Amino acid sequence: MIAPPMLDPVIHAAGRLQICALLASVDEAEFAVLRDGVGVSDSVMSKHLKQLEDAGYVKVRKATTMGRQRTWLSITPAGRKAFDAHVKELTRLANLTL
Amino acid sequence: MIAPPMLDPVIHAAGRLQICALLASVDEAEFAVLRDGVGVSDSVMSKHLKQLEDAGYVKVRKATTMGRQRTWLSITPAGRKAFDAHVKELTRLANLTL
DNA sequence: CCATCACTTTCCATAATGGAAACTTACCAT
DNA sequence: ATGGTAAGTTTCCATTATGGAAAGTGATGG
């Protein structure tokens, strides 16, 4: 192999890549905002978030404000690091010279 | 959805993304070079190339030079366009602001 | 105590990958 | 012509990934 692919499979999948990209740009985002932002069903979003959480890339904060229970997601330092590295690797690939 | 994902599934898959990246940087590449560059088996490389060819992104040229038969791959104009668009979209996602 | 909201999990059906092994072609040697 | 080998191709089979619908959970309002 020319260069061992540093593409993180947890981040590379289209849906999760979008989630990470969205979370990387804000402090926190509501579950529903992410779900609609990515355009998937509740179940799918929940599953993607679980994978990201298991990887330590996303932090989940359940808040009960004004009687309303909402889930807020944020990217962790590890998540940001992994995302940045992933983007960097994509950039490297895109500008690759054989 | 905030922005409809313009990620081309044919190009996004890690293996094919690497193939496209490699082909985007050269005029032509030999099958074996690509296979080793990406680090997959003959069968997998063959199947990825078939998908890229079916999509019109890669051109296959079978050449018999000096008694040796080799397959040369090159990216087509459509392939380059799709790859560039894909990279552009990845860049957009990476710099996304919610 | 029951209904509802906001996710979570389970269930199920596809689609995507991957490698090994079998198969095909072309070309060289005999 | 016939056999052998190189270079891919296809087939076979096993995993894994996705996705949505539907059922399940826990907290909250009435």
Automatic annotation (TrEMBL), chains A, B:
CDD domains given in the database record: HTH_ARSR (cd00090)
Matches recorded under Gene3D superfamilies: Winged helix-like DNA-binding domain superfamily/Winged helix DNA-binding domain
Domain Winged helix DNA-binding per the UniProt entry, residue ranges: 16-93
Membrane-crossing segments per the record: none
InterPro entries assigned to the protein according to its UniProt record, in alphabetical order: ArsR-like_HTH, WH-like_DNA-bd_sf, WH_DNA-bd_dom, WH_DNA-bd_sf
PANTHER family reported in the protein's UniProt record: BSL7504 PROTEIN
Name the UniProt record assigns to this protein: Transcriptional regulator
Organism: Asticcacaulis aquaticus
